C-alpha cells in the first residue's frame, strides 16, 4: 500500500508527464526534480564512506535544485543524514522518506530517467517498489534530443547527432525492458503515444490499478502539478500538459536521408516495439553504417568508464547547483 514508484525511461520519453500524473492523485509527496543519485552523483562523488567525498557531495546537494525542491530544512536534514549516508541508495531512501513525512504523505515516487539502468539494483534495495517504464518512438526522441542539444556527442555533424541520440535511446530501452522483465507484476510499460492519444482513459486505468491510486481524466485536467500545468516540449510551451503535438514529429522534421539513417540504426528495436517502419529497406551511406555500428560500442564504453572507473569523477554530468 505504501510502496514507492520509480518512473524510468529514456530522456524525452514522457517520464515527467507520467510522474506529474502520479502526483495528481494526491497520494505521493510532491517532489518535482530528478534526484540523479545513481546516474550522476554516484560516479561523480564516489564512495560516501570516505569523509572528503561525503563532505563535497552533501555541500553540493544542499545547494542544488535537487535539495531545494524538497523544501526541507538544510540544518535539520544535514544532522539526520549523517546516519544515512553509507550508500546512495540509503541516502535516497532517507531523503525521499523525509520529504514525504514532512508533507504528511506515506508514499513517494522518484523520476530520474537515467535510473532505467539501475532497475535491478533499485528493485533489490526497495523490494516493495514498483517500476513504470515510459517508452516513446525513438525517432521522436532523437529529434527532440538533437533540437535541445542533448544528443550526447560533441560532433557538429547533425546526422551523427541524430544517430547517436537514437542509439542512446535504444540502449536505455533495452536495459529497462531486460531488467524490468525480471520483476513480474512490479514492472509496467507505458507508451507515450498511448498516453497522449484517445486511449488515455485506458492508460490512466492501468496506472491506477498498478500504483494502487485513483487518477482519471477529470483529475489530471484540473491538476497543475509539473508538466500538467505546462507542456514539457522542445517546440513550444503553449500546448496543454497532455498533448499529441509531439507525436510523429520525425515525419516532418527529418529529410529522407535522416529517416533512412534512423530506420537503419534502430529499425529492429522500433519493430520489436511495434512502431511502423517504411516497408522498403533503407538505402544508407557508409557514414551511417559506420555510426550505427560504432556508436553502441562508444556508448557502452562511456558508461563503463563513468560507472566502473575513477574516470567517473570527471564526468561533465552534475547536480543542478543554484537552480530553483
Brief write-up:
This protein has 324 residues and is mainly alpha-helical.
Task: Outline the structure in words.
It is a single chain. It contains 15 helices and 4 strands. With 324 residues, the chain is mainly alpha-helical. It has a domain of 225 residues: Rossmann fold, CATH 3.40.50.300. The two termini are 32 Å apart. About 2% of the residues have low confidence.
CATH topology of the domain at 5-28 and 107-231 and 239-314: Rossmann fold
Reading off the top of the CATH hierarchy, the class of the domain at 5-28 and 107-231 and 239-314 is best stated as Alpha Beta
Helix content: 40-55%
Please state how the strands of the largest beta sheet are arranged side by side. Answer: 2-1-3-4
What is the CATH superfamily label of the domain at 5-28 and 107-231 and 239-314?
P-loop containing nucleotide triphosphate hydrolases
Residue share in β-strands: 5-15%
N- to C-terminal separation?
Answer: 32 Å
Structural class: mainly alpha
Overall pLDDT? 90
CATH architecture heading of the domain at 5-28 and 107-231 and 239-314: 3-Layer(aba) Sandwich
Total of DSSP H or I helical runs spanning 4+ residues: 15
The general outline is globular
Oligomer: single chain
The total count of strands amounts to: 4
List low-confidence stretches.
232-239
* Largest sheet descriptor: 4 strands, parallel
Q: What labels would you give this structure?
A:
324 residues, mainly alpha, Rossmann fold, 4-stranded parallel β-sheet, 15 helices, 4 strands
